[in-house]
């Protein structure tokens, strides 16, 4: 399985749609996209992981790196994820305390705006 990446803007938030496997081979493409978006002034990101089938430690590292980048600009990086097997990875690593994890893109955007 390959990695498909797409992104679009909604309510001054850049939505990154990820589909497939985020692993040691594909994670660099996600890293490049996140860096590019931040370099272009997008500091509020939502990564939609609804169609992610696999996530390894390299993928986690890319997400944490993206979070550090946006936080350097007082930004946010939230995740949309409802798949139990992917959520379990965030629970085990303690990253549920670091990332906002939501059921939908709309919920993630609304939470950020209400802060």
UniProtKB/TrEMBL annotation:
Query: InterPro entries recorded for this chain?
Result: Anti-sigma_ant (IPR003658), STAS_dom (IPR002645), STAS_dom_sf (IPR036513)
| Span of domain STAS | 3-112
Would you say which domain of life the source belongs to?
A: Bacteria
Which family is it part of?
A: Belongs to the anti-sigma-factor antagonist family.
Q: What PANTHER family does this protein map onto? A: ANTI-SIGMA FACTOR ANTAGONIST TM_1081-RELATED, ANTI-SIGMA FACTOR ANTAGONIST TM_1081-RELATED-RELATED
Protein's recorded name: Anti-sigma factor antagonist
**Species annotation:** Marinactinospora rubrisoli
């Amino acid at each position: 399985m390959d990695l498909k990446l797409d992104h679009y803007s909604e309510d001054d938030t850049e939505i990154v749609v990820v589909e497939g496997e985020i692993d040691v081979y594909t994670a660099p493409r996600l890293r490049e996209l996140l860096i590019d978006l931040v370099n272009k002034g997008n500091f509020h990101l939502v990564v939609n992981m609804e169609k992610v089938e696999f996530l390894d430690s390299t993928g986690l590292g890319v997400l944490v790196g993206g979070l550090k980048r946006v936080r350097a600009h007082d930004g946010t990086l939230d995740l949309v994820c409802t798949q139990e097997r992917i959520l379990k990875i965030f629970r085990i690593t303690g990253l549920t305390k670091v990332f906002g994890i939501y059921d939908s893109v709309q919920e993630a955007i609304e939470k950020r705006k209400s802060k």
